[in-house]
Amino acid sequence: MADDYGSEQEAPKEPEPELPxxxxxxxxxxxxxxKALFKExxxxxxxxxxELAAHRFVxxxxxx
Length: 64
Fold this sequence. Notes:
- It is a single chain.
- By secondary structure, the chain is α+β, with helices and mostly antiparallel strands.
- Helices cover 22% and strands 12% of the residues.
- The chain has a two-stranded parallel ribbon.
- The protein starts with 22 loop residues before the first strand and ends in a 5-residue tail after the last strand.
């Protein structure tokens, strides 16, 4: 269907599927650096499908 200017209107496109999340290993995840990395890489709140696209974290704990 053409509008007043003679151009065609585009049909709405489906959003691209999200890529699967990554599995991330953090050494000493309770240290300052580990907490900072976790905070920067956390993406569960930004995903449309958190079960598929959210990153998974595994790490070690520093006992000091």
